[in-house]
């Protein structure tokens, strides 16, 4: 990823001036201010709970500041609704996709801005052509006519980005847009963002990936506990500087991996194949070991582990767990044997967003907690309290809907939900996707402690620093094939990426 310092600041298209926002007794934002300049990408960073999402929602017209001012093109503005923000030329790409699953991709992109014929009917031909043009601009192939339901997270993000671009906004706010994209897709996106910036747009970019911030942004605003810490030129700060100002800890503390001598074999996968997805996958995992599955998006990492857990079927091969062969396509058998799967998409696959925190934590154990067929709140609450405290989860009340939590705390609830079952093997798919650097360190600490206590851990991750920092062994997949197994001692960014891209490591 190249570093770009070429853009020069134009006038401030949007200014946040000393804004505050409270929800009841909780002060989410206190006295925060910064400018967004034309022709510049501006990073907004901070831990989950630092107030970034509240700032975004104020700029999007979802919330109004209690005090302070928003200024667009030099004039004070008040956004009473998202429509006001859009009319002011502000477009927001949120971290989690918000598509209508039963509408087509083209219809999602045109939502709220559909082209009309002379007879005031939706011009579907133009709508489809617009979607195709936007995808061509992004350098991706997505069928405009296919339903949004079933799209991968990467493709959902691409559709969201295309939707924002179709609005021709002058201020583009991007909240973790690259969380589920491959390196190639990120570079394509960044080329689009650079072109928009060079045309005079102002970009506000929220990311927990510091290499993206240094590659794309010219200025950074750091928040902590709802307060403004600093606004600086990116070139004047190192990554360690940013982390210290965010959380008060150094980069080395992000991967607290303990050295553990692996124990007995827990999982054996032999010749696992699924037509068109993966072929002839074989590996083992031992107690106390963290094994990482690495590879580019589309390499088959998640699909292999979903097949191992029984969520997806497979055509050939065997999965042996604890010395016993598991039936394919039977996640209940995998759970009963002592296996747990934390999925990549926590909102769609890991949690029931409308249910309470305590109900989500205890869902897999509701049968064991019930008495005479009835589930009593006291048993749920005790178990949920135990695990949320162990994982240092931040929340108001256990009875609050889990959807009210920050992304990092939602991830902790998913982990609590499965750890409460007492598994021997924990499969975690993108364990720190979209969560802040401080929470990442806590999740890594937990994974390391679980392994030290004898649990086997399989981690699917697209973040190379995470793979190198936490794994005892790295299994690299490429186009559905297991192409390399690399020990912790031999694993480097170069060796993993060369294998993932089908290249030989340079001598």
TrEMBL record:
<keyword id="KW-1278">Translocase</keyword>
<dbReference type="InterPro" id="IPR027417">
    <property type="entry name" value="P-loop_NTPase"/>
</dbReference>
<feature type="domain" description="ABC transporter">
    <location>
        <begin position="14"/>
        <end position="250"/>
    </location>
</feature>
<keyword id="KW-0547">Nucleotide-binding</keyword>
<protein>
    <submittedName>
        <fullName>Rhamnose transport system ATP-binding protein</fullName>
    </submittedName>
</protein>
<keyword id="KW-0813">Transport</keyword>
<dbReference type="GO" id="GO:0005524">
    <property type="term" value="F:ATP binding"/>
</dbReference>
<dbReference type="GO" id="GO:0005886">
    <property type="term" value="C:plasma membrane"/>
</dbReference>
<dbReference type="GO" id="GO:0016887">
    <property type="term" value="F:ATP hydrolysis activity"/>
</dbReference>
<keyword id="KW-0677">Repeat</keyword>
<dbReference type="InterPro" id="IPR050107">
    <property type="entry name" value="ABC_carbohydrate_import_ATPase"/>
</dbReference>
<feature type="domain" description="ABC transporter">
    <location>
        <begin position="261"/>
        <end position="504"/>
    </location>
</feature>
<keyword id="KW-0762">Sugar transport</keyword>
<dbReference type="InterPro" id="IPR017871">
    <property type="entry name" value="ABC_transporter-like_CS"/>
</dbReference>
<dbReference type="InterPro" id="IPR003593">
    <property type="entry name" value="AAA+_ATPase"/>
</dbReference>
<keyword id="KW-0067">ATP-binding</keyword>
<keyword id="KW-0472">Membrane</keyword>
<keyword id="KW-1003">Cell membrane</keyword>
<dbReference type="Pfam" id="PF00005">
    <property type="entry name" value="ABC_tran"/>
</dbReference>
<dbReference type="InterPro" id="IPR003439">
    <property type="entry name" value="ABC_transporter-like_ATP-bd"/>
</dbReference>
């Amino acid at each position: 990823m190249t570093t770009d310092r070429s853009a020069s600041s134009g006038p401030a298209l949007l200014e946040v001036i000393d804004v505050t926002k409270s929800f009841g007794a909780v002060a989410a934002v206190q006295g925060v201010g910064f400018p967004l300049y034309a022709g510049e990408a501006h990073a907004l960073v901070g831990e989950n709970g630092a107030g970034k999402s509240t700032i975004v929602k104020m700029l999007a017209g979802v919330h109004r500041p209690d005090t302070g001012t928003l200024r667009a093109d030099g004039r004070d503005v008040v956004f009473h609704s998202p429509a006001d923000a859009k009319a002011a030329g502000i477009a927001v790409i949120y971290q989690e996709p918000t598509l209508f699953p039963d509408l087509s991709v083209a219809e999602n992109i045109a939502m709220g801005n559909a082209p009309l014929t002379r007879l005031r009917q939706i011009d579907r031909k133009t709508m489809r052509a617009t979607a195709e043009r936007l995808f061509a601009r992004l350098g991706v192939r997505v069928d405009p006519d296919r339903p949004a339901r079933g799209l991968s997270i990467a493709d959902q993000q691409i559709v969201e980005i295309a939707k924002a671009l179709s609005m021709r906004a002058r201020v583009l706010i991007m909240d973790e847009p690259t969380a589920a994209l491959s390196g190639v897709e990120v570079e394509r996106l960044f080329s689009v963002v650079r072109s928009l910036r060079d045309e005079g747009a102002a970009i506000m970019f929220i990311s927990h990936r510091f290499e993206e911030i240094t590659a794309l942004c010219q200025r950074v605003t750091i928040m902590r506990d709802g307060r403004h810490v600093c606004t600086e030129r990116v070139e004047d700060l190192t990554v360690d500087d940013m982390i210290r100002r965010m959380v008060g800890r150094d980069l080395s503390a992000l991967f607290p991996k303990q050295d553990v001598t692996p124990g007995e074999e827990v999982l054996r996968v032999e010749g696992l194949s699924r037509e068109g997805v993966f072929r002839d996958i074989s590996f083992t995992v031992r107690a106390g070991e963290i094994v990482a599955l690495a590879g580019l998006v589309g390499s088959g990492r998640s699909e292999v582990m979903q097949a191992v857990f029984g969520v997806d079927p497979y055509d050939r091969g065997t999965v042996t767990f604890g010395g016993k062969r598991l039936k394919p396509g039977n996640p209940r058998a995998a759970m009963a044997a002592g296996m747990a799967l934390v999925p990549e998409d926590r909102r769609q696959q890991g949690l029931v967003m409308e249910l309470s925190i305590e109900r989500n934590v205890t869902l897999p154990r509701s049968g064991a907690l019930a008495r005479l067929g009835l589930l009593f709140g006291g048993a749920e609450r005790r178990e949920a309290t135990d695990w949320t405290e162990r994982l240092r989860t931040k929340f108001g009340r256990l009875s609050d809907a889990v959807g009210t939590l920050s992304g990092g705390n939602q991830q902790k609830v998913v982990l609590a939900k499965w750890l409460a079952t007492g598994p021997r093997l924990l499969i975690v798919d993108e364990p720190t996707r979209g969560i802040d650097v401080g929470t990442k360190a806590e999740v890594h600490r937990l994974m390391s402690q679980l392994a030290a206590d004898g649990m086997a851990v399989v981690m699917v991750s697209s973040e190379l620093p995470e793979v190198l920092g936490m794994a005892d062994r790295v299994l690299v997949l490429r186009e559905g094939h297991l192409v390399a197994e690399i020990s912790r001692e031999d694993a480097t960014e170069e060796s993993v990426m060369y294998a993932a891209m089908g290249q030989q490591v340079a001598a």
